[in-house]
Amino acid sequence: MNHRERVLAALSHEEPDRVPVDLGGSLATSINIGAYEKLKRHLGLTTPNEVFSLRSMIARVEDELLERFDIDTRSLPMLGNSRPTERLPDGGYRDEWGVVRARPDAEGHFMDVANPLDRELGPADLEAYPWPDPDDPGYTQGLAEAARKLHQETDCAVILSLPAGPLHQAQWLRGYERWMMDLASDVELYEALMEKVVGLWLRIAERMIEAAGPNLDIVLYGDDVGYQKGPMVSRATYVKRIRPYQERIFSLLRRHKAKIVYHSCGSVASFIEDFIELGIDALNPVQVSAAGMDTARLKRDFGNRIAFWGGIDTHHVLPRGSPEEVRAEVRRRLRDLAPGGGYVLCAVHNIQREVPPENIIAMYDEALASGAYAAGRRCWR
Protein backbone atom coordinates (compact mmCIF):
# COMPACT_ATOMS: atom_id res chain seq x y z
CA MET A 1 0.00 0.00 0.00
CA ASN A 2 1.03 3.60 -0.40
CA HIS A 3 0.78 5.98 2.53
CA ARG A 4 -2.65 7.40 1.64
CA GLU A 5 -4.16 3.98 1.03
CA ARG A 6 -2.75 2.79 4.35
CA VAL A 7 -4.36 5.60 6.37
CA LEU A 8 -7.71 5.42 4.60
CA ALA A 9 -7.83 1.63 5.00
CA ALA A 10 -7.18 1.96 8.74
CA LEU A 11 -9.95 4.56 9.07
CA SER A 12 -12.29 2.18 7.21
CA HIS A 13 -11.53 -0.61 9.74
CA GLU A 14 -9.48 -2.62 7.32
CA GLU A 15 -6.06 -4.05 8.08
CA PRO A 16 -3.46 -2.31 5.89
CA ASP A 17 0.04 -3.65 5.37
CA ARG A 18 1.17 -1.89 8.56
CA VAL A 19 -0.24 0.48 11.13
CA PRO A 20 -0.09 4.07 9.78
CA VAL A 21 1.97 6.63 11.70
CA ASP A 22 1.53 10.39 12.01
CA LEU A 23 3.90 13.22 12.90
CA GLY A 24 3.10 16.81 12.01
CA GLY A 25 -0.05 15.88 10.11
CA SER A 26 -2.25 18.23 12.10
CA LEU A 27 -2.26 20.94 14.74
CA ALA A 28 -2.88 18.25 17.38
CA THR A 29 -0.30 15.66 16.26
CA SER A 30 2.89 17.63 15.79
CA ILE A 31 5.94 18.55 17.88
CA ASN A 32 6.96 21.57 19.95
CA ILE A 33 9.59 23.71 18.26
CA GLY A 34 12.07 23.15 21.11
CA ALA A 35 11.70 19.36 20.94
CA TYR A 36 11.98 19.57 17.17
CA GLU A 37 15.25 21.50 17.33
CA LYS A 38 16.72 18.92 19.72
CA LEU A 39 15.57 16.06 17.51
CA LYS A 40 17.14 17.64 14.45
CA ARG A 41 20.43 18.26 16.24
CA HIS A 42 20.44 14.64 17.39
CA LEU A 43 19.97 13.51 13.78
CA GLY A 44 22.55 15.96 12.42
CA LEU A 45 20.10 18.19 10.55
CA THR A 46 20.94 21.89 10.34
CA THR A 47 18.17 23.32 8.15
CA PRO A 48 16.18 26.35 9.42
CA ASN A 49 13.08 25.68 11.49
CA GLU A 50 9.59 26.99 10.79
CA VAL A 51 6.74 27.43 13.27
CA PHE A 52 3.51 25.81 12.05
CA SER A 53 1.19 27.17 14.75
CA LEU A 54 2.14 30.22 16.79
CA ARG A 55 -0.37 29.51 19.56
CA SER A 56 0.89 25.99 20.18
CA MET A 57 4.50 26.73 19.16
CA ILE A 58 4.71 23.59 17.07
CA ALA A 59 7.09 22.99 14.18
CA ARG A 60 6.36 22.41 10.56
CA VAL A 61 8.02 19.02 10.14
CA GLU A 62 10.23 18.98 7.07
CA ASP A 63 10.31 16.31 4.41
CA GLU A 64 13.63 14.75 5.43
CA LEU A 65 12.28 13.88 8.87
CA LEU A 66 8.92 12.72 7.52
CA GLU A 67 10.75 10.37 5.19
CA ARG A 68 13.15 9.22 7.94
CA PHE A 69 10.18 7.96 9.99
CA ASP A 70 8.10 6.91 6.95
CA ILE A 71 5.23 9.17 8.05
CA ASP A 72 1.92 8.51 6.30
CA THR A 73 0.35 11.97 6.64
CA ARG A 74 0.93 15.48 5.33
CA SER A 75 -0.54 18.69 6.72
CA LEU A 76 -2.09 21.55 4.82
CA PRO A 77 -1.08 25.05 5.96
CA MET A 78 -3.57 26.59 8.37
CA LEU A 79 -3.32 30.33 8.85
CA GLY A 80 -6.61 31.37 10.40
CA ASN A 81 -6.39 30.97 14.16
CA SER A 82 -2.60 31.36 14.29
CA ARG A 83 -2.58 34.80 12.72
CA PRO A 84 -1.97 37.61 15.22
CA THR A 85 -3.71 40.86 14.43
CA GLU A 86 -1.57 42.78 16.91
CA ARG A 87 1.84 41.93 18.33
CA LEU A 88 2.27 43.20 21.88
CA PRO A 89 5.35 44.71 23.57
CA ASP A 90 5.66 41.79 26.01
CA GLY A 91 5.98 39.28 23.15
CA GLY A 92 2.34 38.25 23.25
CA TYR A 93 -0.31 38.95 20.67
CA ARG A 94 -3.99 39.64 20.15
CA ASP A 95 -5.65 37.20 17.78
CA GLU A 96 -8.40 37.85 15.24
CA TRP A 97 -11.08 37.09 17.86
CA GLY A 98 -9.66 39.72 20.23
CA VAL A 99 -8.15 37.24 22.70
CA VAL A 100 -4.78 38.29 24.15
CA ARG A 101 -2.17 35.54 24.45
CA ALA A 102 1.19 35.31 26.18
CA ARG A 103 3.55 32.51 27.12
CA PRO A 104 5.51 31.83 30.30
CA ASP A 105 8.82 31.24 28.53
CA ALA A 106 10.44 31.43 25.13
CA GLU A 107 9.41 27.95 23.96
CA GLY A 108 6.11 27.45 25.73
CA HIS A 109 2.52 27.33 24.55
CA PHE A 110 0.73 30.68 24.23
CA MET A 111 -2.03 30.92 26.85
CA ASP A 112 -5.03 33.24 26.90
CA VAL A 113 -4.33 35.98 29.45
CA ALA A 114 -7.03 38.53 28.61
CA ASN A 115 -10.54 37.46 27.65
CA PRO A 116 -12.39 40.33 25.94
CA LEU A 117 -15.88 39.26 27.05
CA ASP A 118 -14.93 38.56 30.67
CA ARG A 119 -17.51 40.99 32.09
CA GLU A 120 -21.20 41.48 32.56
CA LEU A 121 -22.83 41.07 29.15
CA GLY A 122 -26.12 41.68 27.44
CA PRO A 123 -27.38 41.03 23.89
CA ALA A 124 -26.30 44.50 22.78
CA ASP A 125 -22.72 43.78 23.84
CA LEU A 126 -22.58 40.70 21.63
CA GLU A 127 -23.99 42.61 18.68
CA ALA A 128 -21.48 45.42 19.12
CA TYR A 129 -18.42 43.17 19.49
CA PRO A 130 -15.84 43.38 16.64
CA TRP A 131 -16.16 39.78 15.41
CA PRO A 132 -13.69 38.36 12.89
CA ASP A 133 -14.68 38.41 9.25
CA PRO A 134 -15.36 34.79 8.24
CA ASP A 135 -14.81 35.77 4.61
CA ASP A 136 -11.31 37.08 5.30
CA PRO A 137 -9.13 35.69 2.47
CA GLY A 138 -6.43 34.83 5.01
CA TYR A 139 -8.36 31.75 6.10
CA THR A 140 -7.99 30.12 2.68
CA GLN A 141 -4.76 31.69 1.50
CA GLY A 142 -2.68 29.09 -0.32
CA LEU A 143 -4.94 26.16 0.60
CA ALA A 144 -6.08 25.16 -2.87
CA GLU A 145 -2.58 25.11 -4.35
CA ALA A 146 -1.05 23.40 -1.30
CA ALA A 147 -3.73 20.70 -1.34
CA ARG A 148 -3.28 20.09 -5.05
CA LYS A 149 0.49 19.89 -4.72
CA LEU A 150 0.44 17.53 -1.73
CA HIS A 151 -2.15 15.24 -3.27
CA GLN A 152 -0.44 15.04 -6.64
CA GLU A 153 3.21 15.08 -5.60
CA THR A 154 2.98 12.77 -2.58
CA ASP A 155 1.11 9.55 -1.91
CA CYS A 156 0.33 10.60 1.67
CA ALA A 157 -2.98 11.32 3.39
CA VAL A 158 -3.60 15.08 3.21
CA ILE A 159 -5.04 16.57 6.41
CA LEU A 160 -6.70 19.94 6.96
CA SER A 161 -6.73 21.19 10.56
CA LEU A 162 -9.70 23.49 11.07
CA PRO A 163 -9.37 26.43 13.47
CA ALA A 164 -9.84 25.70 17.17
CA GLY A 165 -13.47 24.77 17.70
CA PRO A 166 -16.35 26.98 18.83
CA LEU A 167 -16.32 25.68 22.41
CA HIS A 168 -12.71 26.77 22.78
CA GLN A 169 -13.32 30.09 21.07
CA ALA A 170 -16.27 30.86 23.34
CA GLN A 171 -14.24 29.89 26.42
CA TRP A 172 -11.33 32.09 25.36
CA LEU A 173 -13.64 35.02 24.62
CA ARG A 174 -15.66 34.76 27.80
CA GLY A 175 -13.03 33.37 30.14
CA TYR A 176 -13.28 29.77 31.22
CA GLU A 177 -14.88 30.44 34.61
CA ARG A 178 -17.57 32.74 33.25
CA TRP A 179 -18.29 30.37 30.37
CA MET A 180 -18.88 27.52 32.83
CA MET A 181 -21.06 29.75 35.01
CA ASP A 182 -23.13 30.75 31.97
CA LEU A 183 -23.53 27.09 31.06
CA ALA A 184 -24.86 26.37 34.55
CA SER A 185 -26.89 29.46 35.36
CA ASP A 186 -27.36 31.81 32.39
CA VAL A 187 -28.36 29.57 29.53
CA GLU A 188 -29.75 32.44 27.48
CA LEU A 189 -26.38 34.20 27.41
CA TYR A 190 -24.51 30.92 26.89
CA GLU A 191 -26.65 30.11 23.86
CA ALA A 192 -26.41 33.62 22.42
CA LEU A 193 -22.63 33.51 22.55
CA MET A 194 -22.44 29.96 21.19
CA GLU A 195 -24.81 30.78 18.32
CA LYS A 196 -22.63 33.69 17.29
CA VAL A 197 -19.35 31.81 17.53
CA VAL A 198 -20.65 28.61 15.91
CA GLY A 199 -22.13 30.55 13.00
CA LEU A 200 -18.85 32.32 12.28
CA TRP A 201 -16.81 29.14 12.74
CA LEU A 202 -19.01 27.14 10.35
CA ARG A 203 -18.56 29.73 7.63
CA ILE A 204 -14.77 29.74 8.10
CA ALA A 205 -14.62 25.93 8.12
CA GLU A 206 -16.79 25.60 5.03
CA ARG A 207 -14.61 28.02 3.07
CA MET A 208 -11.44 26.19 4.08
CA ILE A 209 -12.79 22.76 3.14
CA GLU A 210 -14.12 24.02 -0.17
CA ALA A 211 -10.76 25.65 -0.94
CA ALA A 212 -8.95 22.34 -0.38
CA GLY A 213 -11.54 20.68 -2.60
CA PRO A 214 -11.07 17.15 -3.93
CA ASN A 215 -7.44 17.02 -2.82
CA LEU A 216 -8.40 16.68 0.85
CA ASP A 217 -8.38 13.24 2.50
CA ILE A 218 -8.98 14.06 6.19
CA VAL A 219 -10.32 17.00 8.14
CA LEU A 220 -9.51 17.46 11.83
CA TYR A 221 -11.76 19.45 14.17
CA GLY A 222 -10.97 19.89 17.85
CA ASP A 223 -13.01 20.90 20.90
CA ASP A 224 -12.12 19.47 24.30
CA VAL A 225 -14.96 17.98 26.34
CA GLY A 226 -12.83 16.04 28.83
CA TYR A 227 -10.56 16.59 31.82
CA GLN A 228 -7.84 14.36 33.19
CA LYS A 229 -10.10 12.86 35.87
CA GLY A 230 -13.42 12.82 34.03
CA PRO A 231 -15.62 14.50 31.42
CA MET A 232 -15.94 18.29 31.39
CA VAL A 233 -19.70 18.08 31.98
CA SER A 234 -22.24 15.37 32.70
CA ARG A 235 -23.52 13.46 29.71
CA ALA A 236 -26.96 15.01 30.26
CA THR A 237 -25.46 18.49 29.99
CA TYR A 238 -23.39 17.46 26.99
CA VAL A 239 -26.46 16.13 25.19
CA LYS A 240 -28.55 19.20 26.00
CA ARG A 241 -26.05 22.06 25.73
CA ILE A 242 -23.05 20.96 23.63
CA ARG A 243 -24.08 18.16 21.29
CA PRO A 244 -26.62 20.30 19.35
CA TYR A 245 -23.81 22.59 18.23
CA GLN A 246 -21.60 19.65 17.36
CA GLU A 247 -24.44 18.16 15.31
CA ARG A 248 -24.31 21.26 13.13
CA ILE A 249 -20.53 21.04 12.87
CA PHE A 250 -20.45 17.38 11.91
CA SER A 251 -23.37 17.83 9.54
CA LEU A 252 -21.19 20.29 7.63
CA LEU A 253 -18.15 18.01 7.71
CA ARG A 254 -20.11 14.96 6.55
CA ARG A 255 -21.20 16.77 3.39
CA HIS A 256 -17.66 16.42 2.10
CA LYS A 257 -15.86 13.21 1.15
CA ALA A 258 -12.99 13.65 3.62
CA LYS A 259 -12.70 11.41 6.66
CA ILE A 260 -13.39 13.16 9.99
CA VAL A 261 -10.95 13.07 12.90
CA TYR A 262 -12.29 14.63 16.10
CA HIS A 263 -9.81 15.83 18.71
CA SER A 264 -10.80 16.00 22.35
CA CYS A 265 -8.34 15.73 25.19
CA GLY A 266 -9.11 14.03 28.45
CA SER A 267 -11.59 11.48 29.68
CA VAL A 268 -14.25 11.20 26.98
CA ALA A 269 -15.25 7.53 27.05
CA SER A 270 -18.77 8.44 28.23
CA PHE A 271 -19.29 10.47 25.05
CA ILE A 272 -17.95 8.02 22.46
CA GLU A 273 -21.40 6.63 21.63
CA ASP A 274 -22.42 10.21 20.82
CA PHE A 275 -19.31 10.68 18.70
CA ILE A 276 -20.18 7.57 16.72
CA GLU A 277 -23.75 8.77 16.18
CA LEU A 278 -22.38 12.12 14.98
CA GLY A 279 -20.43 10.38 12.24
CA ILE A 280 -16.87 10.70 13.46
CA ASP A 281 -14.39 8.38 11.75
CA ALA A 282 -11.57 8.60 14.32
CA LEU A 283 -11.00 9.92 17.84
CA ASN A 284 -7.79 11.73 18.73
CA PRO A 285 -5.67 11.88 20.90
CA VAL A 286 -6.83 8.87 22.98
CA GLN A 287 -5.41 10.32 26.18
CA VAL A 288 -4.44 7.06 27.82
CA SER A 289 -3.45 8.68 31.14
CA ALA A 290 -6.96 10.07 31.66
CA ALA A 291 -9.69 8.30 33.64
CA GLY A 292 -11.56 5.61 31.74
CA MET A 293 -9.33 5.74 28.65
CA ASP A 294 -7.96 2.19 28.81
CA THR A 295 -7.13 1.28 25.23
CA ALA A 296 -8.04 -2.41 25.49
CA ARG A 297 -11.52 -1.52 26.78
CA LEU A 298 -11.99 1.25 24.21
CA LYS A 299 -11.13 -1.15 21.41
CA ARG A 300 -13.42 -3.84 22.79
CA ASP A 301 -16.39 -1.52 23.27
CA PHE A 302 -16.09 0.79 20.28
CA GLY A 303 -13.32 -0.43 17.98
CA ASN A 304 -15.56 -1.77 15.21
CA ARG A 305 -17.39 1.57 14.93
CA ILE A 306 -14.76 4.27 15.45
CA ALA A 307 -11.03 4.39 14.81
CA PHE A 308 -8.39 5.65 17.24
CA TRP A 309 -5.62 8.09 16.39
CA GLY A 310 -2.82 8.65 18.92
CA GLY A 311 -2.43 6.63 22.08
CA ILE A 312 1.31 6.82 22.88
CA ASP A 313 1.48 8.29 26.38
CA THR A 314 2.88 11.83 26.64
CA HIS A 315 2.11 12.19 30.34
CA HIS A 316 4.67 9.72 31.67
CA VAL A 317 6.29 7.42 29.13
CA LEU A 318 7.52 9.71 26.36
CA PRO A 319 8.97 12.46 28.60
CA ARG A 320 10.17 10.29 31.51
CA GLY A 321 10.61 6.75 30.23
CA SER A 322 13.65 5.08 28.70
CA PRO A 323 13.74 4.21 24.99
CA GLU A 324 12.97 0.60 25.90
CA GLU A 325 9.94 1.70 27.94
CA VAL A 326 8.78 3.75 24.95
CA ARG A 327 9.14 0.69 22.72
CA ALA A 328 7.11 -1.37 25.19
CA GLU A 329 4.43 1.36 25.23
CA VAL A 330 4.23 1.25 21.44
CA ARG A 331 3.81 -2.53 21.44
CA ARG A 332 1.13 -2.29 24.13
CA ARG A 333 -0.95 0.20 22.14
CA LEU A 334 -0.47 -1.82 18.95
CA ARG A 335 -1.64 -4.92 20.79
CA ASP A 336 -4.72 -3.11 22.11
CA LEU A 337 -5.71 -0.97 19.13
CA ALA A 338 -4.26 -2.39 15.91
CA PRO A 339 -6.14 -5.70 15.39
CA GLY A 340 -8.74 -5.41 12.65
CA GLY A 341 -7.48 -1.99 11.56
CA GLY A 342 -8.85 1.23 12.98
CA TYR A 343 -5.62 2.63 14.43
CA VAL A 344 -3.22 5.42 13.44
CA LEU A 345 -0.24 5.63 15.78
CA CYS A 346 1.23 8.84 17.14
CA ALA A 347 1.80 10.59 20.44
CA VAL A 348 -1.03 11.72 22.66
CA HIS A 349 -0.99 15.49 22.00
CA ASN A 350 1.84 17.42 20.41
CA ILE A 351 5.25 16.14 21.52
CA GLN A 352 6.55 18.60 24.11
CA ARG A 353 10.09 19.93 24.54
CA GLU A 354 10.99 17.74 27.54
CA VAL A 355 10.71 14.56 25.42
CA PRO A 356 14.25 13.29 24.63
CA PRO A 357 15.09 12.79 20.96
CA GLU A 358 15.98 9.16 21.69
CA ASN A 359 12.40 8.52 22.82
CA ILE A 360 10.89 10.08 19.71
CA ILE A 361 13.12 7.93 17.54
CA ALA A 362 12.28 4.84 19.61
CA MET A 363 8.53 5.46 19.19
CA TYR A 364 8.59 5.67 15.41
CA ASP A 365 11.23 3.01 14.86
CA GLU A 366 9.28 0.56 17.03
CA ALA A 367 6.03 1.43 15.27
CA LEU A 368 7.60 0.56 11.93
CA ALA A 369 9.33 -2.55 13.28
CA SER A 370 6.32 -3.95 15.15
CA GLY A 371 3.34 -2.53 13.29
CA ALA A 372 3.18 -4.87 10.30
CA TYR A 373 0.00 -6.89 9.76
CA ALA A 374 1.69 -9.56 7.61
CA ALA A 375 1.42 -13.08 9.02
CA GLY A 376 4.16 -13.89 11.47
CA ARG A 377 5.29 -10.27 11.84
CA ARG A 378 2.80 -9.00 14.38
CA CYS A 379 5.47 -8.28 16.94
CA TRP A 380 3.02 -6.57 19.27
CA ARG A 381 1.56 -9.95 20.05
List the helices and strands and how they pair.
Blueprint: H1 3-11, H2 33-43, E1 51-53, E2 58-59, H3 63-68, E3 73-75, E4 84-87, E5 93-95, E6 100-102, E7 111-114, H4 123-128, H5 143-153, E8 157-161, H6 166-174, H7 176-185, H8 187-212, E9 218-222, H9 235-254, E10 259-263, H10 272-278, E11 282-284, H11 295-302, E12 307-312, H12 317-320, H13 323-337, E13 343-347, H14 357-370
Parallel strand pairs: 3-8, 8-9, 9-10, 10-11, 11-12, 12-13
Antiparallel strand pairs: 1-2, 4-5, 5-6, 6-7
Description:
The protein has 381 residues and is an alpha/beta fold. The protein has helices at residues 3-11, 33-43, 63-68, 123-128, 143-153, 166-174, 176-185, 187-212, 235-254, 272-278, 295-302, 317-320, 323-337, 357-370; strands at 51-53, 58-59, 73-75, 84-87, 93-95, 100-102, 111-114, 157-161, 218-222, 259-263, 282-284, 307-312, 343-347. The chain has a single domain (3-83, 116-370), classed as TIM Barrel (Alpha-Beta Barrel), CATH 3.20.20. 41% of the residues lie in helices and 13% in strands. It has a seven-stranded parallel sheet with strand order 3-8-9-10-11-12-13. A hairpin with a 4-residue loop joins β5 (93-95) and β6 (100-102). α6 (166-174) packs across α8 and α7 packs across α8 (187-212). The protein is globular. It starts with a helix and ends in an 11-residue tail after the last helix. The mean pLDDT is 94.
H/E topology pattern: HHEEHEEEEEHHEHHHEHEHEHEHHEH
Which structural class matches the secondary elements? alpha/beta
Kindly report the spatial arrangement of strands forming the biggest sheet: 3-8-9-10-11-12-13
| Record field, number of beta strands | 13
Strand count, sense and barrel status of the largest sheet are: 7 strands, parallel
Strand content: 5-15%
Total of DSSP H or I helical runs spanning 4+ residues: 14
What's the domain count?
Answer: 1
